[in-house]
Amino acid sequence: MKKSRGRTGRKRRRKYLQNFMDGVNCSHKLEYIKLKKWLKDRGFEDSNLRPAQFWDTGRGLMTTKVLQAGDLIISLPEKCLLTTDTVLSSCLGEYIMKWKPPVSPLIALCTFLIAEKHAGEKSLWKPYLDVLPKTYTCPVCLEHDVVSFLPEPLRKKAQEQRTAVHELYMSSKAFFSSLQPLFAENTGTIFNYSALEWAWCTINTRTIYMKHSQRECFSLEPDVYALAPYLDLLNHSPNVQVKAAFNEQTRSYEIRTNSQCKKYEEVFICYGPHDNQRLLLEYGFIAMNNPHSSVYVSSDTLLKYFPPLDKQRNAKISILKDHDFLENLTFGWDGPSWRLLTALKLLSLGADEFTCWRRTLLGDVISASNEQQTLNVTAKICHFLIEETQHVLLQISQLKRKKENLEKHLSLVEALRLEDLKILQKSAEILCNLNMATA
């Protein structure tokens, strides 16, 4: 009997350690106790979800029971959601209604978040604000040194994002000033750029889609945002499927899982079939082994493998541009994309084959030499991108040693680039096998 008890003890210890590895329950933390009480007062029934800290995804929600496909994960009553209705029913409402030209629904929500954060203890939304991230890792928040290591298409989008947020701030300053009667302090210090950046990131990374009818007090931009306390602790996985929507009958936002989930495991939802560049741009994180991930090939990289002496070069580029074949050219886990191969096939057409360009765009085989030339150039581009990625990874590791304050942000870009490297190496392997098969 003694031996049996020892085995049970070992089993329990193993189970405890397994649970610890899966996730550490954080329900006992004061911020979550206050949030749950606040939600309960608004009609939220305690579900089987518990806040927890996970070693790989950080903060998330674990389930205390086995979830089957079709089960309801969470049902959040309308009263718990923060929408433009919330903003209009606050003291900001009258100022928004009389401001011309009308502010956007996005600015209305940003303004509300900044004002409530400033109100501190007096805010009715304090229990929710207390669990929101203090900082974000979206490209708009990254230092220039870090942004420079992003892949070229993402770097461009990151700069566009930064410009858009800055313009949003500049165009809203007069509206922020109009709110002065509501505050003892100067609105310029309350509604500063970093406050807007934080509010913008909160909305961009955490809102759920919820369509509202058009109102005259807002500009014509779609009013589709809702912040969902507690629900927004659910992390993304590209490998799960969920059904999420506002239920008009129950007046609640509901999420049902299409996947199974074991007891004490992290519960995931899917934000959409996004690649890692999109996840980093919009949400400030990446997903490891993301099946949707791709490495983008810029048109500059593409064209440097074709001689400027080719008399049809400009005509080929014009055709690719007209048929939208110079964008979204990628390498994925299954090798070069059809779009990339098609663009390279057209650029590889010999002078005597050029009249067949329409057939190329339809995917027809033009000649054995064209196929071989395409594979050779694709392999060269792939190897060039591998070397470039390895060089960037070396630069990142050197900067991490020099600038410890940037380590968190640099590690994020490093993870993105390491994932790119894995995709490119897999593509190189596929191309090598294709070359051997056609040799």
UniProtKB/TrEMBL annotation:
Catalysed conversion reaction: N(6),N(6)-dimethyl-L-lysyl(20)-[histone H4] + S-adenosyl-L-methionine = N(6),N(6),N(6)-trimethyl-L-lysyl(20)-[histone H4] + S-adenosyl-L-homocysteine + H(+); N(6)-methyl-L-lysyl(20)-[histone H4] + S-adenosyl-L-methionine = N(6),N(6)-dimethyl-L-lysyl(20)-[histone H4] + S-adenosyl-L-homocysteine + H(+); L-lysyl(4)-[histone H3] + S-adenosyl-L-methionine = N(6)-methyl-L-lysyl(4)-[histone H3] + S-adenosyl-L-homocysteine + H(+); N(6)-methyl-L-lysyl(4)-[histone H3] + S-adenosyl-L-methionine = N(6),N(6)-dimethyl-L-lysyl(4)-[histone H3] + S-adenosyl-L-homocysteine + H(+)
Class of enzymatic activity (EC top level): transferase
EC number(s) per entry: 2.1.1.364
SUPFAM superfamilies associated with the record: SET domain
Gene3D superfamilies: Rubisco LSMT, substrate-binding domain, set domain protein methyltransferase, domain 1
Subcellular compartments: Cytoplasm, Cytosol; Nucleus
Domain of life where this protein originates: Eukaryota
Keywords: Cytoplasm, Inflammatory response, Methyltransferase, Nucleus, S-adenosyl-L-methionine, Transferase
A GO biological process held by the record: methylation
Signal sequence, renumbered to the chain: none
The keyword Cytoplasm is annotated on this UniProt entry: yes
Keyword S-adenosyl-L-methionine: yes
GO molecular function, one term: histone H3K4 monomethyltransferase activity
Domain named SET: residues: 47-272
Any one cellular-component term (Gene Ontology): cytosol
UniProt xrefs under Pfam families: Rubis-subs-bind (PF09273), SET (PF00856)
Family note: Belongs to the class V-like SAM-binding methyltransferase superfamily. SETD4 family.
Subunit record text: Forms a ternary complex with TBK1 and ZNF268; the interaction with TBK1 is ZNF268-dependent and leads to TBK1 monomethylation.
PANTHER family: SET DOMAIN-CONTAINING PROTEIN 4, UNCHARACTERIZED PUTATIVE METHYLTRANSFERASE
Protein name listed in UniProt: SET domain-containing protein 4
Organism: Calonectris borealis
Originating gene: Setd4
